[in-house]
Design brief:
440 residues; 26 strands; 5-stranded parallel beta sheet; alpha/beta; globular
Length: 440
């Protein structure tokens, strides 16, 4: 914990993953006192405790690195989990964040007293008061499991709990889910298990990691309008992969980026090698027998649930921040209406790597947190009243579009002060009128 400054003058940053570290660095750069806490033993978030050690990032290092802190030159295009952890640890040290950080420190609850102070209780019983709370608890921890009829009597393993192929050795494996984690689980099971099937409710967009010798996330298409991005990527798929149905997979029933695509062709190769067998959705289970929607069955020792995660904030009062189908209902990506001093950062996912977005975004958010001191109303309330602001409808973010919006936002921040005065004056007049009416 930072010394010499009352916690009443500080903000609490919850989470020391890539987003929490970027926010802490931005707060430090803007002279905003803070404490950073994380329930884990160190920095890194999911790269410390949430991925198997042989995992690699699916976006390139250029698309993933902080724009003001390049990854080492000797890192490959797609660094490993250990390299990512080393990179984030070095960032925290070089940015001077560790002196304000506490680890193995879990937040039990955070609530406002109604007068602008946040009361934070920790799992170890400690209680503190803060000026504000910056929530960066990530979106890869609250495990979501498949829901199917019947009871499976074998083992069910969530992808987050996967450590290595030893867990799958000589077992009949069924992987549920075809995203990046599901692909990795299926490929490992195809090599080290006695058999592997993968069950998909619908088709996925599988994009090659590289194109013409360059990482796909580095080719110069990401600043184009979305319809052009989709057209180019579909052409790349047609040339390099072909029709997914030739691999026994379903054709996607959605546009690219309506859902998060999977990067890489490892699953397609594993299918061609006979190591992985595609299956449709599950109809029901009985014992170790799984019956699929097409009437076929399979016997399995273990089900690997690569079914994603819920977006949740268990330390906040239920309903304080609404989440609709995984999309957090905040304005400007972080600001809930009607709540002063609460900022929800990092719940969304950049479509092609967070690096190009998180550094300028965290800098903007730090400026807005400073601005909140000069405002009567919460930032989210001011943004809710603006005709240019809408609640998000997806958790997938276009980094280049967001960067353009961030540059524009720096110019219009002063307008929030004018809007604040106008709305505060209206609210006061309304309140005064209500009191007069009540007395009459």
């Amino acid at each position: 914990m930072s010394e010499g400054i009352s916690t009443l003058e500080r903000h609490l940053v919850i989470g020391a993953g890539p987003v929490g570290l970027a926010m802490a660095a931005a707060l430090k750069r803007h002279g905003i006192p803070f404490d950073l806490v994380d329930a884990a033993s160190g920095v890194g978030g999911n790269w410390l405790h949430g991925v198997y050690r042989h995992a690699h990032i699916v976006s390139s290092k250029k698309a993933t690195e902080y724009t003001d802190y390049p990854m080492p030159d000797d890192y490959p295009d797609f660094p490993s989990a250990d390299q990512m952890l080393a990179y984030l640890t070095a960032y925290a040290k070089d940015r001077g964040i560790l002196s304000s950080s506490e680890f193995n420190k879990s937040v039990a609850s955070a609530s406002t007293d109604g007068a602008g102070t946040w009361i934070v209780k920790f799992a170890d019983g400690e209680k503190r008061q803060y000026k504000g709370v910056v929530v960066c608890n990530g979106h890869h921890w609250d495990k979501r499991y498949p829901d199917f009829r019947g009871k499976f009597t074998g083992e069910i393993l969530h992808s987050k709990d996967y450590v290595g192929h030893e867990q799958l050795a000589d077992k009949r494996v069924l992987v549920i889910g075809g995203g990046n984690s599901g692909v990795d689980m299926a490929c490992d099971a195809g090599r080290f298990g006695s058999s592997c099937d993968i069950s998909l409710r619908s088709g996925y967009w599988y994009l090659p990691k590289t194109f013409l010798g360059r990482p796909l996330t580095d080719i110069p298409i990401w600043g184009l309008p979305i319809f052009l991005q989709r057209a180019i990527l579909k052409s790349i798929v047609a040339v390099t992969i072909g029709d997914y149905r030739r691999y026994g997979l379903q054709w996607p029933d959605h546009k690219i980026f309506d859902r998060h695509p999977a990067f890489g062709t490892d699953l397609l190769n594993a299918i061609r090698l006979g190591r992985v067998n595609p299956r449709p959705a599950i109809d029901h289970v009985e014992g170790k027998t799984v019956t699929f929607a097409d009437g076929t069955t399979g016997e399995y020792d273990i089900i690997v649930a690569a079914t994603g995660f819920n977006t949740s904030f268990p330390f906040l009062r239920e309903g304080l921040v609404k989440v609709h189908r995984g999309v957090v209902q905040v304005y400007g990506g972080a600001f809930p209406a009607g709540i002063r001093g609460l900022y929800i950062v990092g719940w969304a996912q950049a479509r092609n790597g967070f690096g190009r977005l998180i550094t300028p975004l965290s800098d903007l958010y730090a400026r807005m947190i400073t601005l909140q001191d000069e405002l009567t109303l919460p930032l989210g309330t001011l943004m809710e009243s603006s005709f240019t602001q809408r609640l998000p409808t997806t958790h997938l973010v276009d980094p280049e579009k967001s960067r353009r919006e961030i540059r524009l936002a720096h110019w219009i921040l002063p307008l929030l002060k004018l809007r604040d005065r106008r709305l505060a004056r209206k609210q006061k007049l309304k309140s005064d009128k209500s009191r007069l009416t009540a007395r009459a």
